[in-house]
């Protein structure tokens, strides 16, 4: 989209101005259709007598209008300042901040859920002496633990992962980064909605590869992809071996039995 309808057009700023409402609608629409119906079920919205669909639609329209007006204002300001840098990329950078937030939300909705699900099941079994067959209530402390875990992981290796995905596969700019993040957030949120455990990093790498294949100015660095895929493949047997080893050591302890 950014290549054919924005970047390669001589009147790209005029095109951007016309596309801003649609970009805002796509950004909020993808997130809102999947997430807002759940959010409006929170107790804070019980004071409203309107139907949940009307509240969701109202929040979405308000958000789209606000983003559109803000982006139009920034575009006009940048044009008046006659910036030497790409005005298009500066505007798309604003949109990318929001798309990055949605990817972060999607990451927590799926990847963190995948991580805490076994712990939640173990705690349920220990407390009830029964195996959960249907849905189970997850204690708040497990949710907090999952959140702290992903934050700790990002603090330790986040910089390296961001550099690999954002620079070493292809060099992303705000417009291409926005496209990759929208595709990733949509995929992950849909998977979360229907209950599929997937990987955000897999989806994001796939989105970046897709952009690289469609780009006329960049080539995908397949050597980096080979390293990434190898890391994914190695993860499975290493995790299995570590799990079996830890379990075997625990079984030897008297209190474990």
What can you tell me about this protein's structure?
With 257 residues, the protein is mostly helical. The protein has one domain (2-220). The protein is built from eight helices and no strands. The chain has helices at residues 2-7, 12-39, 52-81, 87-128, 140-168, 174-194, 200-214, 222-251. The longest helix is centred in the middle third of the chain and has 42 residues, at 87-128.
Helix-strand category: mainly alpha
Radius of gyration: 22 Å
| Element-level helix/strand string | HHHHHHHH
Helix content: over 70%
| Overall geometric form | flat
Number of strands: 0
Average pLDDT taken over every residue: 82
- Low-confidence segments, given as residue ranges, are none
Strand percentage lies at under 5%
How far is the N terminus from the C terminus?
59 Å
Number of helices: 8
Number of discrete domains: 1
Strand count, sense and barrel status of the largest sheet are: none
What is the gist of this entry?
Helices cover 78% and strands 0% of the residues. The chain is mostly helical.
Secondary structure blueprint with pairings:
Elements: H1 2-7, H2 12-39, H3 52-81, H4 87-128, H5 140-168, H6 174-194, H7 200-214, H8 222-251
Helix pairs in contact: 2-3, 2-4, 2-6, 3-4, 4-5, 4-6, 6-7
Key attributes of the depicted protein:
mainly alpha, 257 residues, single chain, flat, 0% strand
């Amino acid at each position: 989209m950014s290549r054919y309808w924005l970047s390669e057009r001589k009147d790209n700023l005029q095109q951007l101005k016309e596309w801003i409402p649609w970009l805002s609608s796509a950004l909020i629409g993808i997130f809102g259709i999947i997430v807002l119906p759940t959010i409006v079920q929170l107790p804070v919205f019980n004071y409203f007598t309107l139907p949940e669909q009307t509240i969701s639609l109202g929040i979405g329209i308000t958000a789209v209008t606000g983003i559109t007006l803000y982006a139009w204002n920034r575009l006009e300001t940048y044009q008046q300042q006659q910036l030497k840098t790409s005005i298009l990329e500066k505007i798309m950078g604003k949109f990318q901040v929001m798309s990055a937030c949605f990817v972060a939300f999607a990451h927590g909705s799926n990847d963190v859920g995948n991580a805490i699900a076994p712990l939640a099941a173990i705690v349920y079994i220990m407390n009830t002496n029964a195996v959960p067959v249907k849905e189970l209530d997850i204690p708040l402390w497990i949710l907090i633990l999952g959140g702290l875990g992903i934050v700790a992981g990002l603090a330790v290796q986040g910089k390296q992962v961001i550099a690999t995905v954002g620079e070493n596969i292809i060099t992303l700019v705000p417009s291409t980064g926005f496209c990759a993040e929208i595709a990733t957030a949509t995929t992950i949120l849909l998977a979360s909605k229907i209950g599929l455990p997937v990987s955000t990093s897999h989806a994001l790498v796939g989105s970046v590869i897709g952009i690289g294949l469609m780009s006329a100015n960049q080539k995908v660095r397949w050597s980096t992809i080979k390293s990434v895929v190898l890391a994914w493949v190695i993860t499975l047997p290493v995790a299995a071996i570590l799990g079996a080893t830890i379990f075997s050591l625990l079984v030897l302890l008297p209190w474990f039995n």
